[in-house]
TrEMBL record:
Top-level taxonomic group: Eukaryota
Top EC class of this enzyme: transferase
Listed name of the protein: Elongation of very long chain fatty acids protein
Entry GO CC: endoplasmic reticulum membrane
GO MF entries: fatty acid elongase activity
Main location: membrane
Amino acid sequence: FYLIYNNLFQVLFSTWIFYEAWASAWGNGYSLRCEPVDYSMSPSAMRVARGCWWYYISKFTEFFDTFFFVMRKKYDQVSTLHVIHHGIMPMSVWFGVKFTPGGHSTFFGFLNTFIHIIMYTYYLLAALGPHMQKYLWWKKYLTVLQMIQFIMVFLHASQLLFTDCDYPKAFAWFILMHAVLFYFLFYNFYKQSYTKREVKQKISQKKKDDDDRAHNRPVRVISEAERQKNKSFWSNMSLLTNIPCFLPAVTDVDEDSSDEAIKNNTVYSMPPHNSITTNAFMSGETSFHNRAFVSKSSNA
C-alpha cells in the first residue's frame, strides 16, 4: 500500500508542477529560442520561481523510491543509473533555483515532470498487483522517452551557444553536460536491460532448437489441458483395474500406430536417453490413440 500511495502522490505532484510550468511559462509566452531570467518581483516572475522551488523539492520526494527499494530488498533496482541520477539532480536543481529561477533552463524541468507523470503512472499500475502486468507491455518505451527528453534538452540548450541571449552561457554548458551524461546513462541501461537480453533469449532458443533437431527429439507440444485430461483418464483406469498405469517421471511420446505394433506390444526407444516403454497399454479413446507412457530410466 505504501508503494501505491507514494506513486499516486508522485503522479499528482508531477502533474501539478507540469501545469504550473505550462500556465506560468511555456504556455504563457516563453520563447523556445531565447528566454532570459526575469529577476523582478512581479507576480508572473514569482510564480515561475515558486514552481522552480517546488520542482527542487520533488527531487527529494523521489528518494522514497530508493527507500522502498531498500526496504523490500530490491537491491538490483538501485542501479548505477539510479544512484547517479538521484545523487546529482538535487544539487543541480539547487544551483538552478539559486541563480536562474526561471527562463531558458526551466524547459528541462518542464519536460522532466511530463516524463515523471508517465513514469510514476507505470509504477502505480505495477504496484497494483500481478494482474496488471499484461497492461504494462510498454515498460521499455519509458527509457526511450527518457532518451528523447535529453536529446530535446540538448538541442534546446545548445541554441544559447550560437545566439545572442541574455542568459548565462555557463548554465547552458551545465545543462548540456547533464543532457549528454544522462542520455548515455539511460542508453546504456536500455542496452543492458532490453537489447542484450533479447539477443541472449534468441541465441538460447536457437541453441535449444538446434539441439532438439540434432537428437531427433519429439517436436509435438502437449497442451496443459490435454496433459490434465490424460492424467485424469489414466488415474481412473488405475483405480478400476488395480493396474499401475504410471511409473515415476513419465514422458509422452509418439508411437507407431500400426496394428502389428499394438498387437506385439512393441518397445520404443526415446533418444537421447535410451528410454524404453514400460507401459504399452493403449486406449480406445481417439484423443489418446498412438500414445505411450515412457519411463526416463533405461533400467525400468
